[in-house]
Amino acid sequence: MFLKKVIIHFLVIIILSMSCQSSNTLPSGIQTGYEAINPASIIAVPVFIIPDPSKNSSIDLAILNTHQLASKIENKIILSFKGQPNINGHSFSAVSKFIGNKSPNIIDDLSNSIKLVSARFFSDEASIRTKITSSCVLRKSFLEFYSYCLAPEKRWLDNLNLLSSQIINADSALLAFINNIQADVKDGSYQITGDFSVLLVDTNNGKLVWGNNVSLTLTNPQDKKSFPEWEDLIDKVFNNEFWKNFPGRIEK
């Protein structure tokens, strides 16, 4: 057991030393090489519930389910693209209807791919830890987790290609993630916190085209002994600024 821990520690040191040269922060918004793109057809993939492995985040499932946050976020995102003539595709509900209730389905396979890659960071197995690449180990955001850890995975790309081929060969996929959901009382004040990521990815190669991730906390005054409304938090996150430079979107 001791030798096993020494080996794992040694491997982590090697990966960290290799990754120092590739530690530049990946910016939000449009990515290099995709500045002029305007996707022909976008698949809006149903929301994924995934804690951000780049942070100490967690998701309170009771809050998530009670307030139906996934469906509210999907509705808010669709509303954000209302009246955008240059953006075409398939809505969350249309994709869900197409996939159907059969389980496991392609969305389950995509979700499992994310969870398997995320689990590597918490594994004690040397054979698992060595799968963490040098560019992945120093991820600082969910955008970087996707670009450096998930996108290069063959299983992920295969599932993405399959989803695209099943839905009229859409060239892009809109991926929405709930990364953190918490409610706390701190110093007598009731507060809620949500972390969310939205990525537009190329379904041909899995690369990130555009992305943004936001963390927001709402706090009520101390004399108000109740939590802020989750709808208010969602509205504040998914504002016009959130979608800045989204391909084909007209800024209003």
Number of domains: 1
Q: Provide the structure class.
A: alpha/beta
Instruction: List segments where confidence is low: pLDDT < 50 over at least 5 consecutive residues.
Output: 2-23
Main sheet: strands, sense, barrel: 6 strands, mixed
Extended strand count: 6
Global outline: globular
Q: Using only CA atoms, what is the Rg?
A: 19 Å
Count of DSSP H/I helices: 10
Proportion in helices: 25-40%
Mean pLDDT: 89
Task: Outline the secondary-structure elements.
Blueprint (H helix, E strand, L loop, with lengths): L1 H18 L9 E2 L11 E8 L11 H6 L2 H12 L8 E2 L1 H8 L6 H14 L6 H4 L4 H4 L4 H9 L3 H13 L5 E15 L2 E14 L5 E12 L10 H8 L15
Parallel strand pairs: 2-3, 2-4
Antiparallel strand pairs: 1-6, 4-5, 5-6
Helix pairs in contact: 3-10, 5-9
What does this molecule look like?
- By secondary structure, the chain is an alpha/beta fold.
- The protein has helices at residues 2-19, 61-66, 69-80, 92-99, 106-119, 126-129, 134-137, 142-150, 154-166, 230-237, and strands at residues 29-30, 42-49, 89-90, 172-186, 189-202, 208-219.
- It has a six-stranded mixed beta sheet with strand order 1-6-5-4-2-3.
- A hairpin with a 5-residue loop joins strand 5 and strand 6 (208-219).
- Helix 3 (69-80) packs parallel to helix 10 (230-237) and helix 5 (106-119) runs antiparallel to helix 9 (154-166).
- It is globular.
- Residues 2-23 have low confidence and may be disordered.
- Keywords: Signal.
